[in-house]
Design a protein that fits this description.
This protein has helices at about 10-20, 30-40, 100-105, 160, 190-210, 275-285; strands spanning about 50, 55-60, 65-75, 80-85, 90-95, 110-115, 120-125, 145-150, 170-175, 180, 185, 215-225, 240-245, 265-270, 270. The chain is α+β, with helices and mostly antiparallel strands and about 290 residues long. It has three domains: about 20-80 and about 190-240, Aminopeptidase (3-Layer(aba) Sandwich); about 80-180, Peptidase M42, domain 2 (Elongation Factor Tu (Ef-tu), domain 3), CATH 2.40.30.40; about 260-290. β4 (about 80-85) and β5 (about 90-95) form a beta hairpin. α1 packs antiparallel against α5 (about 190-210).
Length: about 290
């Protein structure tokens, strides 16, 4: 086997840049374009990089054989918000994109992208947020009915907000809060699943630098609708013998996972995954000392 060296610094730089590209489900063009540029720049022999009709990114790599094509997928779409209603106060009622945990985004900075491309800053706040006025604010349920966007603009009515170019259906980007620590950690709101996409990019870059050709034709699908349940469901160029999905590992009580290990998902709420494949992944991890 070729001696592969993962370009950690290049993968980390890719991740930081990708984290800073807004990409809530439904608006992923900036992240997809950036990923496409980075894969194309590798200039790997035989590689094809192209968008799909669904707006995802498809990268195909020729293999030594074509009898059992393989697929790898990760996703760049993230959680986000959309303008649901412009309230009489000029503030915005929102609809969540994906499984938003409202307590986790309270007081978060946001960017509202108007239809014409103009962008406005704002903040996610509870309705009637002052503890000096609202005695129940500490225990008040957080939901799309009790949270709103306060714009950084002089607006006190729906008409004044609409005059800014903001309308129902506009996307709202949550601040990613990207930070690279002195200890080498990368913090960010949307490591799910941009860290996975960065891992895929790093692996492909390592293959290219080593001049290594894969055993089978392989397609990489950078999906853009995973957070709403149909990320990698379409767009593959050929029938696959194997599909490997790279995503975050759920961490919590009763989970055999942590932040310093690779998780192999053998089962989810829908049932177990293919035994032969999960067993092979475990063997590979043990053989190469991957925790």
């Amino acid at each position: 086997m070729a001696n592969l060296t993962i370009p950690v610094d290049a993968a980390a730089d890719f991740l930081v840049d990708l984290l800073n590209k807004p990409s809530p489900t439904g608006y992923t063009v900036e992240a997809i374009d950036y990923a496409g540029e980075c894969f194309t720049a590798l200039a790997m022999p035989g590689m094809r990089v192209q968008p799909t009709e669904k707006g995802a990114l498809l990268v195909t790599l020729p293999g030594q054989k074509q009898d059992a094509p393989r697929g790898v997928t990760g996703h760049v779409d993230t959680l986000g918000l959309m303008v649901r209603e412009i309230k009489s106060t000029g503030r915005l009622k929102t609809s969540p994109l994906g499984g938003i945990m409202w307590g986790g985004i309270e007081m978060e900075g946001v960017t509202v992208r108007a239809y014409d491309g103009r962008r406005y800053r704002g903040t996610v706040v509870p309705v009637n947020p002052s503890v000096h006025v609202n005695r129940n604010i500490r225990t008040q349920e957080r939901s799309d009915e009790t949270m709103e966007i306060r714009l950084d603009a002089r607006t006190r009515s729906a008409d004044e907000t609409r005059a800014l170019g903001i309308e129902v259906g506009d996307f709202i980007f949550l601040d990613p809060r990207v930070e690279v620590s002195d200890t080498g950690f990368i913090r960010g709101r949307f490591l799910d699943d941009k860290a996975g996409v960065a891992a895929i990019y790093g692996a492909v870059r390592a293959l290219n630098e080593a001049g290594f050709q894969l055993a089978q034709d392989t397609a990489i699908l950078i999906a853009n609708y995973e957070e709403v349940g149909h990320g990698g469901a379409a767009g593959w160029p050929y029938p696959l013998a194997e599909l490997l999905a790279i995503d975050m590992g759920a961490i919590g009580e009763s989970q055999n996972s942590d932040e310093f290990s690779v998780s192999i998902c053998v089962k989810d709420g829908g049932g177990p995954y293919h035994f032969d494949m999960t067993h092979r992944l475990r063997q590979l991890a043990e053989a190469h000392d991957i925790p």
